[in-house]
Amino acid sequence: MRVFHSPASARHDPDRYFRRGSIVTHPEQADRYAILREAVGRAHDVSEPGDHGLEPILCVHDAGYITFLRETWDRRHELPGVADEVLSGHFSRPHMHRRPDGLLGLLGYHTADTSTPIRAGTWAAIHAGAQVAVETADAALEDGVAYALCRPPGHHAYADSAGGFCFLNNSGIAARRMQARMSVRTGRPARVAILDIDVHHGNGTQGIFYEAADVLTISIHADPANYFPYYAGYAEETGTGAGIGYNVNLPLPHGEGDASFHGAIEKGLARIAEYAPDALVVALGLDASEHDPIGALRVTTPGFERAAGLIASAGLPTALVQEGGYLCDALPDNLAAFLSGFEGSR
Ligand SMILES: [Zn+2]
Question: Tell me: the pLDDT tens digits for 157-202?
Fold first, then answer.
């Protein structure tokens, strides 16, 4: 299996954020990149992506948001006192629509929480991650499967906002890329499914495609009633307009293990089979692990291998895009188990 990654991923390295009433070590650290890179380097053909520019990113994200992400660090002098990162402590609400000119206001407009500080290397890291997703999408269509080591993750990013450690929605970018390529290849509008198995609901992905019937979004995650992202991820959210019926949420009670996880994946795969897409993106969070420091489910390492086997049996061209999965001894083993499980079942 071809694997794509970029050393630029390590250039965004937040060190703290506000969680449950206190300032804690940021779980989404640059070390994740090094550990996942080491885990895939042993068994796979690893390479860096070409630069596909902004075009595939702008198929998913608003231009004004991208400009904000590119320029914020260079505008930091507008905020006296900023040292190593630019971060807002206040955020726009759904009933406050005005996009202001000032940097502090823009920060609160384009971010959902305190987990996505913008630092000197943030744009380089997230831009590289998107290029990794694009290259992987292309490779998956050639080879049948490929893996994108994207870091930071992407599935909490909406078209115009960051949040939950995420800036650019790499899974969404890969999906639109595969769709465009497959449409050219088949001569008809292609359809893509995104299966998100990260322990957190893929709210950004849901938001991006909520009105779309040509991208089916399915998320398996821990019940958000008392868990991030709180305000989305419920079973009754099925899409809107033309997208009604093309968003599926499969929340699981906290503490569930392999059997429930696999049952939800089988349910998702049944819906995907009915939809009959041309390609599949797996939003590959590994934080459903029993050992994950911020997880809420109890999936084992063999459980990830089995999950991969189930997904591989769908027989679709598949881009595996890294989402969450935080620092613990099991993290590299879970990635290796998933990739070998996928390859063993193709
Ligand atoms: Zn997650």
Answer: 999 999 999 999 999 999 999 999 999 999 999 999 999 999 999 9
Choose the catalytic residue: 127, 156, 221, 291.
Answer: 156
| Distance from residue 151's CA to the centre of ligand 1 (Å) | 12
Instruction: Name residues with Cβ closer than 5 Å to ligand 1, which is an ion.
Output: 198, 200, 285, 287, 324
DSSP state of 10: G
pLDDT tens-digit readout, 12-28? 999 888 777 888 899 99
Question: Taking a C-beta distance cutoff of 8 angstroms, is the pair 171, 208 a contact?
Answer: no
The tokens for 5 are: 């990654």
CA distance 53 to 39: 28
Selection from 274, 346, 277, 275 nearest residue 315 by Cα: 346
Q: Give residue 186 CA to ligand 1 midpoint distance, Å.
A: 34
Q: Work out the burial of residue 255: count CB atoms within 10 Å of its CB; fewer than 13 is exposed, 13-18 middle, 19 or more buried.
A: exposed
Q: Which residues contact 72 (CB under 8 A, 6 or more apart)?
A: 86, 103, 106, 107, 118
- Cα 189 from chain centre: 24
- 199 alpha carbon to ligand 1 midpoint, in Å? 5
Domains of the chain in start order, with CATH, are 2-62+121-344 (3.40.800.20)
Please tell me the distance from the alpha carbon of residue 10 to that of residue 196, in angstroms, as a whole number.
24
Q: Residues 261-292, buried b or exposed e (16+ Cβ, 10 A)?
A: bbebbeebbebbeebebbbbbbbbbbbbbbbb
> 97: number of CA atoms within 13 Å, CB side?
1
Is residue 110 annotated as part of the catalytic site, yes or no? no
What are the pLDDT digits (tens) for 72-95?
999 999 998 888 999 988 899 989
> Ligand 1 centroid vs 200 CA: distance in angstroms?
4
Q: In this predicted model, what pLDDT tens digit does every residue of 303-332 receive, in sequence order?
A: 999 999 999 999 999 999 999 999 999 999
Instruction: Tell me the two tokens of residue 303.
Output: 């459980």
